[in-house]
Amino acid sequence: MWPEGGAPRLEDLAPSSTLVVYLHGNSMDRGFGHRVALYQVLLKLGWSVLAVDYRSYGDSSRVRLSEQSVVEDGVAVLSWLEERLGPDPPQVVLWGHSLGTAIATQALVRANYTGVAGLVLESPFNTMEDEVKHFKVAQLTAWLGGFNIQEELRKAGVEFLTDQWLAQVHMTSMVARMLPNYSTR
């Protein structure tokens, strides 16, 4: 998405431009209402926005979802950008929301793309285990069923150990527990 009067192609973005790469959370897809409102705010700031869906989200191809598949998608986006933006890229900000924070953090480390200037983590969590333990039903189910949440997440391939990956990020980062409702006024 391009701000009014902005460059019509990624390759035309100037080094002084800002491109936000948005990785969404688990619910819905890149076109969900509150996400579109955020894009509109970013566009009004004069920034370009690249919002993607992971496989099995939105109109993307269907696959068995796992941490590996969504992180691969994040890495693919960063690799794709690196190929297109060349040696003088715009200021790239990687913005993850909720589950997207875990994907963004791990993809950033794995891709090793030096063109990212900053990382925004909106409503992040440390690990999926911590996240699941906040749900009373999960706590009760684990207690009644006698199973280990961490072990079940490992077997399912969805540990999302954001805290371990974040320790390897060496750039300007902003963590926001929750941002207010976006307004386009």
User: Helical amount among residues, as a percent range?
Assistant: 25-40%
What value does the average pLDDT take? 85
* End-to-end Cα distance: 19 Å
Task: Please give the order of strands in the largest beta sheet.
Answer: 2-1-3-4-5
| Rg for CA atoms | 17 Å
Explained architecture:
- There is one protein chain.
- The model has no long low-confidence stretch (mean pLDDT 85).
- By secondary structure, the chain is an alpha/beta fold.
- The protein contains 7 helices and 5 strands; from the N terminus they run βαβαβαβααααβ.
- The relative contact order is 0.16.
- Strands 2-1-3-4-5 form a 5-stranded parallel sheet.
Explain briefly what this protein structure is.
This protein has about 180 residues and is an alpha/beta fold. The chain has helices spanning about 35-45, 65-85, 100-110, 130-135, 135-145, 150-155, 160-165; strands at about 20-25, 50, 90-95, 115-120, 170-175. The longest helix is centred in the middle third of the chain and has 19 residues, at about 65-85.
